[in-house]
Amino acid sequence: MTTNECLQAIRAHYSLLSEKERRIADFILGSPHKVIYFSISELASASEVAEATVFRFSKHVGYKGFQELKIALARQIVKPEANIHEVVQETDDTDTITKKIFNEHKRALDDSVALIKEETVDGVVKHMTQATRIDIYGSGGSGVVASDAYHKFMRLGIPTQAFTDDHQQLMSAALLKENSVAIGISNSGSNRDVVDAIQTARDKGAVTIAIANNRFSPLTKAAHYTLSTSARESLFRTEAMASRIVQLAVIDLLYVTAAMQMKSTTLENLEAIRQAIAAKRY
After folding, report:
1. Sequential pLDDT tens for the chain (282 residues)
2. Structure pTM?
3. What residue stretches are annotated with the HTH rpiR-type domain (predicted)?
4. CB contact at 8 A, 226 and 121
5. Cα 45–46–50 angle (5° rounding)?
6. Other residues' Cβ atoms within 10 Å of the Cβ of residue 107
7. Would you tell me how many other CB atoms lie within 10 Å of the CB of residue 212?
8. Rounded CA gap, 179 and 167, in Å?
9. Closest CA to 217 of 193, 197, 190, 195
10. How do 160-163 and 180-185 pair as beta strands?
11. Which domains does the chain have, with CATH numbers?
12. What is the secondary structure of the chain as a DSSP string?
């Protein structure tokens, strides 16, 4: 199937769909621009069907799965320049582009603040400060955030590692025990590797934490705690910077809150680090 036939394919197959599959079709046909930002969990919830029904629907209209359907839908309805940035138009000058990009990032941060619950942060930090080990999992752009988390959390003096390789993530998770903490980072909350690692860590007795944009995703279902973010990111522009900025802010929130509770230890560690790296600077 060519990539510009998604909506046409849904209409063509409509009479052959089951009643539940027609709910999905109706939602996509009525709100295609919303669907390109949805995970399979969100579309299932919006259509009031099970995730398995969304998968079957995608197969029935000619795609291997929901992700392939969503890619085809995005290619059909999204302007080419949106692959660079959704809110930027081809006619925008540099000043307009600057304001749009920075305003988008500020909006993502403001929207995320409204979702962060004090009791969730307190619960996560309590487990972090009492942990014997903290392992962090992320892939792609979220892998960069996982590395930044390692860079920060090591200052707490708690053994910390970040894993971006899928096999190493599972190996790490399989070795976790009680009093360990595992943090999974995924904007969509649907990265299979990160979800598998977090579920394995939970099965081994670790406290699991999700940092995700989708509160009803496979990742959040596998985690004890969820720190929700709010940043628009679609399949056609998965390297969107706003999501990483928000994730980095959440990591900084956890680090600073934990550091304040472990003030003496953290200050000693920071001084030791400064002395160690002093010779690296001119």
Report:
1. 444 488 998 998 999 999 999 999 999 999 998 888 788 888 999 999 999 999 999 999 999 999 899 888 888 877 654 444 456 677 888 998 888 888 888 888 988 998 899 999 999 999 999 999 999 999 988 999 999 999 999 999 999 999 999 999 999 999 999 999 999 999 888 899 999 999 999 999 999 999 998 777 889 999 999 999 887 654 444 446 788 999 999 999 999 999 999 999 999 999 999 999 988 877
2. 0.76
3. 4-80
4. no
5. 35
6. 14
7. 29
8. 23
9. 190
10. unpaired
11. 6-77 (1.10.10.10), 107-280 (3.40.50.10490)
12. --TT-HHHHHHHHGGGS-HHHHHHHHHHHH-HHHHTT--HHHHHHHHTS-HHHHHHHHHHTT-SSHHHHHHHHHHHHS-GGGGT-TT--TT--HHHHHHHHHHHHHHHHHHHHTT--HHHHHHHHHHHHH-SEEEEEE-THHHHHHHHHHHHHGGGTS-EEEE-SHHHHHHHHHT--TTEEEEEE-SSS--HHHHHHHHHHHHTT-EEEEEES-TTSHHHHH-SEEEE------GGGTT-HHHHHHHHHHHHHHHHHHHHHTHHHHHHHHHHHHHHHGGG--
Tokens 């892939």, residue located: 139
Beta-bridge mates of residue 134:
160, 181
Extract the tokens encoding 270.
């920071």
